[in-house]
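Chain and conformation:
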Amino acid sequence: MKLSRLLAFLPALIISVITHAETGTDDQVLVFLKSGAVEIFHHSDLKSIEMADEQYYTDHPDAGITQLFKTEDAVKAIAIADIDSVAFGNRDKVEINPDVMRFTQKHIDHLVGYDGMTLIFDQSTTANLIPAPGQKVYCDILCDQLPIGLCAVATSVIKNETGQTVVNISDVDISDIFDALLYVGASASYTMNLTSSEESTRKGAPVGKDFDIINIHDENMSAKGTIKVQFDDIVINAFKHVYSATITIEPTLDFSYDLLQIDATLEKEKEFNAVNIPIGTIFGVIRPSLSLGGFINLKVEGRLNLTMHRDWKFTFLWQRMKGESQIITPDHAEGGDIPETNFTKINSHISGEIFGGLKLDLALGVVGNLAGIIAENRLGPCIEGNLESELLVDAENNYEPQLYSEAKIGISGKLSTDVSLFYQKIVPSSIIGLPKITEEKKLLFNKDLTFFSREFPLFPQFKKTVAVPVKNKITATSDKAISVATHTCTETLSEIEPGFALVDKATNEIVDSVFVAPLPSNSQEPHGIESLLLPEKDAPSEKYIVFPVIKYDGHIIKAAPEEIKSGATLSPIFFALSKGKTRTVGGAYTVKSKTQSGITYIQGNPIKLIHPNPLFKNAYQPAWTPVKNSSGEIDIIGTWKGNIKEESFTMTFNPDLTGSYNGQPFTYECDVPDKGDISITISSDGSTDKFSLMSISDKSIKLFFHKFKRSITLTKQ
């Protein structure tokens, strides 16, 4: 195409695209290449069609002028020299030669033998069902008698000694069957449902139908869900011997693994429950074959119990040009984040790797042709762990920081694909009956794709662990009690059952332990307990140490220990003021001051709040740390009344971190105890106000409201 003609063509091309968009006619913009391939665009996606103003191909220096088809997120460059024509709208055309005998189910019902060279019809076959010598025959119904379909010409017709009709045939190309055969941009889909019923039937169906498959399972693994196989942008250009399609596979699956306790390394590689799916042909030409089953590959020591749900999506490109086939596999999975619907629950102490899931084989060929290409896909979760049984015992006996933090499990999605060429052969026999087919494969390449990779700790980390004796807390057995509180702060794969263990420092023996209600995965909740008991009435607390612990797979695992505190944990504060300068000697919130000899001494404690945990009824009760003054102990709990801009208002603080502001309920927390910063969150709309506690007495508190930028004194009611 000359440049002048091309430049004249471009405005018409763009106007045509716009016209199609406005009128709502067919959406296709088809670029036919001289090779027979077809590039498919949709005018609703095209943003512009432009000429390249510089050399576009780095690997094709002789490409010359290049046409750029631009969409929102991609640019397709096509050398002008490669373009045969451009068309707008559907160009599908299917015309079978009127002299061709197209087999129907009637023909197949009378067909009793086929060996690739001969068709045998039974004695009851009528003459109108028998092809004449020189007549071409075509069958796009895949069945036991004709498993690859049929494109052939009858060379001779005879009767054998039993009265059967014997038709000798020779193969022809599918282009010899049709006067015109072009499909561009068509689609087809199949959905396989993995059911739990052993009585499920497999239903052969035309394009767009579903298939029910029995649940895939063996002794260690099972999978249920659906697998959708979608063919898009199908190209069937028979007279150019070009076939192609974009194939998207979307599994939505529930996996479960269950490996019992293993004392030694277990090695296993197994495929199971393979089922062939009779999906027929695509538009009577493309011959796909689907096989679905399960597989499991493992080399692991330990124990694993896992359930998970996963949604995946990946896309292949299949091309067959002039008898040569190829499958282009994905370089990455779509989407970088794990879908919100996905979940994983696991209890494990494995060392090694487990890879198992679905084995989906997709073979592609053309009706009547014995050669094709197959992609054997293994898809499922890949699980890697580094915690051996011996290390788990060590973690139970002693807290080892490195072991505790490095006990992890990695989970990822994995797609392993083997792409092979295949050649099927129909084996002749002395007694012709149903055909026997053998298959040879030649591996082209293997490709592994990993996605949705995450690493999870097996053991949660704990923070803010505190253990203190409970004053005046004497049980019926006269034992002393220890109060303990901690926070979990790690995203785990499954719920954990935390607790606390009181350990004798000298013997490393657990003298008392308490477990609390399980916490869900991803929890960062505080929790505590008040019932760890010293074994002797007068035993010094320094003799013991407290461990946060968890129950894991039948073991009690120790986390970082905490010494039992005694005495004051917060120091007073002193400010020295002289000549207008302030020097901080200590560090805590101030509540009292006294001036003597020109020096002002300021003393105080933070309004530290111990957060409640709703899981424990007898744990710490939330309360502000009391402030000592001449009137005794004072805290912020209660109802306080004051005025803002001559309007009366009332604030109430409850022990459970709830309260009300002029009747409006809120929750509150201490943001910065050292500074007295407090936040309240209004329950009705989620809005947040913040203020600082400036001073407190038995009768009043002084608050600085950040919202109003002023201090207000409230009176205790």
